[in-house]
Amino acid sequence: MLDSLLALGGLVLLRDSVEWEGRSLLKALVKKSALCGEQVHILGCEVSEEEFREGFDSDINNRLVYHDFFRDPLNWSKTGEALPGGPLGALRAMCKRTDLGPVTIALDSLSWLLLHLPCATLCQTLHAVSYQDSCPPGDGSPVGKVHVLGLLHEELHGPGPMGALSSLAQTEVTLGGTMGQASARILCRRPQQHPTDQTQWFSILPDFSLHLQEGPSKEFQPQSDPHIPLVDPMAHLTFNLHLSKKEREARDSLTLPFQFSSEKQEALLRPRPSQATSHIFYEPDAYDDLDQEDPDDDLDI
Amino acid sequence: MATVATCGGDAVGVGSAVATASKSNVTSFQRRGPRVSGTNDSGPRLVSITGTRPSVRNGQLLVSTGLPALDQLLGGGLAVGTVLLIEEDKYNIYSSLLFKYFLAEGIVNGHTLLVASANEDPANILQELPAPLLDNCKKEFDEDVYNHKTPESNIKMKIAWRYQLLPKMEQIRPVSSSRFGHYYDASKRIPQELIEASKWHGFFLPEKISPTLKVEPCSLTHGYIKLLQFIQNIIYEEGFDGSNPQKKQKNILRIGIQNLGSPLWGDDICCTENGDSGHNLTKFLYVLRGLLRTSLSACIITMPTHLIQNKAFIAHVTNLSDTVVGLESFIGSERETNPLYKDYHGLIHIRQIPRLNNLVCDESDVKDLGFKLKRKLFTIEWVQDNYLRQERNIYPPGFSYLLKQKDSAWGEGSLQHSTFLMSFLAKATAFASRLVRHSEPLKQTGSGRIRQAAGPRLWHDGRRQEAPGLLGIPP
């Protein structure tokens, strides 16, 4: 499942935490799409370019188009190389691309962008970038799929922005693991269909290729077992709910006092002596309790 | 003729009536039937627009929401000029389905549609509408409905035999174009010719707003202002507010706004906790309601309220809308494994029903409503019905799973069961009758004092008679 993440298109959120970092998975996915022949754009905001490129071999490095916003995010040095408009401008420029073919855009990291840009603007721009198939059909030729991989540090943000980005994302990969084994919980939201939830164990090799694994050994299974036991309403009752066969027969043969049987029907249909409906006349006297809460409350038993 | 002379003022009228009666040799009472002359009736009559009907309770003009079961729960339908707010479920599967049912109902009835969305092109939304059910498809529907019924449902009710006469929840019936609500097949798409024959306007936010390069702390109302202007233009140009008097055929405008309040509209109410810009959405709803009240239109809005962090804000939004329906799906929650909910996909909560020209609202008294999306149909049922297909909802909530057990000491047919039931029913009816009496208007007694109805009374003839604790017997 992890290797077919990129097949769906749209926004893929990689949520990592302090214990389980996600940059290596991001780099592994970037390497994979570069090897598939896609165009790869990197928006580097959190780490320097050298640190990001280390570990990749030269042909992959030549394919990556790197937009560096780490060294000079606010464009103070005013050299010509920095893109106007900052990272947002770079994203918007990618919306207006004219060349075809599938494109992968890796955002390193989406957390940095969330902290520096208003959330609503970022969501709108990400949506515009990911849903490029709403292009006017006048082109004739189909535009290739756009994959946006965003690295998100989930501990940095509150439930609001996280919820907003999750609702926008096609796929959400949450990193976790036990005992040295990394796992990815993949939640895939397809439009109008039920979301699928899978867990995949993996490891990243030193050359940033993805190695899928079966999972840790059996004794660690109960910890990661997501199965919830069926709620049984019959448990912890103080009375017996099960009848033996004899009791059941005795119960079935019992006539109930309020059952509408044929005798009762005849009794009702027989002409009654007094045709008047029943009246209840009640004159309350001075000592009467008119509390309507419970008529049996003043019974002295 | 002596009576005519003594009448005085209206002698002329009576005289002429009597004169005509004597002339034409028929009675002066005429049966009201189809008029022979065929001229336009100028009397005050309700405007008959296709797809609407007056409410049986207060005469309000209603349109169907596309789901007859939901219409029933809302008191007959959605009133024209009001807003139906749907609180989305977590993955926006079922709320978008309700949205599409509303629009499909508009197409089938020939209403004009206005679809506004920030994430999907309205043309694509219209392509995905469900197909309406036609008469010849009734057969396959019957199989779909009846194949889940267990053989127990054929056993006649033993104790609550009177409840067999109660009407069940909405059954599937074949559609005809003159009916108020229609049924749709969720697995098929609406035929293309129906979409082309219909009139619709689309508002897709990314097309209407050009993204500017500089990062401004966005004029967050920009998208909302554009949408309001668009709606106002359509209402004015097409004469839904009565401004174009030469239009002969009045029609309803159905407005659908998808995912209002999400960050894609430029609103950050879902992103921030303190919500200092929360007034944008409330202002929008206020102005929208003003536009709707002065035109022949009905609006459906879906809102991702599960993303809104400020819970007080959801109360503001609820107050500003008319009808509010919340959807809660069981996907991923712990209720998925609860056997009580095993046949349902989620719960539907009717959070608010408006009081339009009324003092009380038309709220149904059933609180546990579940919905399920079968392969073709979207049905809404009482959750208790799942366990109690034989006996209707006479069991107290929470005990139904106990009392349903057929082979238990509490099962149906046991003395314990029936005694428990009768005592519960007696208390429930006494409570209910007391509530009904409390809501009666103030009554005047013979001594001139205004006295409030303080307890269950049986007669209103001035004699104060009370029977505390007994069931009220109608006079």
UniProtKB/TrEMBL annotation, chain B:
GO biological process: regulation of transcription by RNA polymerase II; tRNA wobble uridine modification
Subcellular location: Cytoplasm; Nucleus
Main localization category: cytoplasm
GO CC terms, sorted: cytoplasm; elongator holoenzyme complex; transcription elongation factor complex
Pathway the protein contributes to: tRNA modification; 5-methoxycarbonylmethyl-2-thiouridine-tRNA biosynthesis
Superkingdom classification of source: Eukaryota
Gene3D superfamilies in the cross-refs: P-loop containing nucleotide triphosphate hydrolases
Signal peptide start and end residues: none
Function noted in UniProt: Component of the elongator complex which is required for multiple tRNA modifications, including mcm5U (5-methoxycarbonylmethyl uridine), mcm5s2U (5-methoxycarbonylmethyl-2-thiouridine), and ncm5U (5-carbamoylmethyl uridine). The elongator complex catalyzes the formation of carboxymethyluridine in the wobble base at position 34 in tRNAs.
Subunit structure: Component of the elongator complex which consists of ELP1, ELP2, ELP3, ELP4, ELP5 and ELP6.
Listed name of the protein: Elongator complex protein 4
Source organism of the structure: Callithrix jacchus
